[in-house]
Amino acid sequence: MTRRNFTKAVAAGLAAQLPPLLRSQRSRQLKIGLSTLAWNVSRTSLENFEQAIKDTSELGYWSFETVAPIIEAWDADGSLARLIEKYHVPLKAGYIDVNVTDPSQRKETVASVMRLARLVKKHGGNYVVMSTNGRRRSPAPDTFNFAEHKANMAAALNEYGMAVLDLGLRAGLHPHTGSVVEKRDEVYGIMNAVDPRYMTFAPDTGQIQKGGADAAQVVKDLAKITTHMHLKDYSNGKYMGGYCPLGMGVVDVESILNTLEEAGNSPDVMHELDRGNAPMTARETAAFSKAYLQRLGYQFQR
Description:
There is one protein chain. The chain is α/β, with parallel strands linked by helices. The chain has a single domain (28-295), classed as TIM Barrel, CATH 3.20.20.150. It has helices at 3-17, 49-59, 68-75, 79-87, 106-122, 146-166, 184-193, 205-210, 215-221, 253-263, 282-295, and strands at residues 32-35, 64-67, 91-98, 127-132, 170-173, 200-201, 228-231, 233-234, 243-244, 268-271. The strands form 2 sheets. It has an 8-stranded parallel beta sheet. α2 (49-59) packs parallel to α11. The two termini are 33 Å apart. The relative contact order is 0.16.
């Protein structure tokens, strides 16, 4: 599919989602925010951050999440506080990579986690999302032995979670493609091994689906300890790392949201989409996903 045809298809899909609700009129309690990733705001790029916050506010998403380097860089001169005040959209969570397989890095990682948690709290947020270190260097074969590292990984995650809890925030594990917690059995294995008082579940539904598992089933199984989520769809297409706006892929987004609503945990939910070679602007993807969520009965600020 060419970029032009893809854009036309998206426009048609968006138009189809604009009529009044076609689904259940059940009460919806979750207030859905937005990750800045779609604007290419990442660990290595500080560009587009203000545009991401501006679009998030104007589209009416309830909050935003971004990565640790962005929070640290924009806090240094007071810019983050000014940005939040300017666009009236709160920071909900910060995202950080943590090492869970090398005990020699534990002390340094705890310090990094606490530094981010303090900044998140300073700017009104309440959550630290943690993704683990990588399992291999492509194209080398995957030789990571999860069972061998499991106990040490759980101990590390519990320690990082305790550090965050000591500051009055919550923490959750974010399984990620290419990390040491990637596959279905690894997700269940590590979540059964950690202490849920300190480390809860913060899944990315698209990443889970891409990893070969049924994201809706995983969320259903772990709903009681799910306290944060990256709500992402997956189509296995050539754009955006195979991900797509909500409602365009194979992830059962509606079922996932129903599970969260019924679980009663009131988790933070952040719509997220990888940017990559997207044929749409970041704002267009967020607007499309907003229309889909509205069709399911979700409210936005505007």
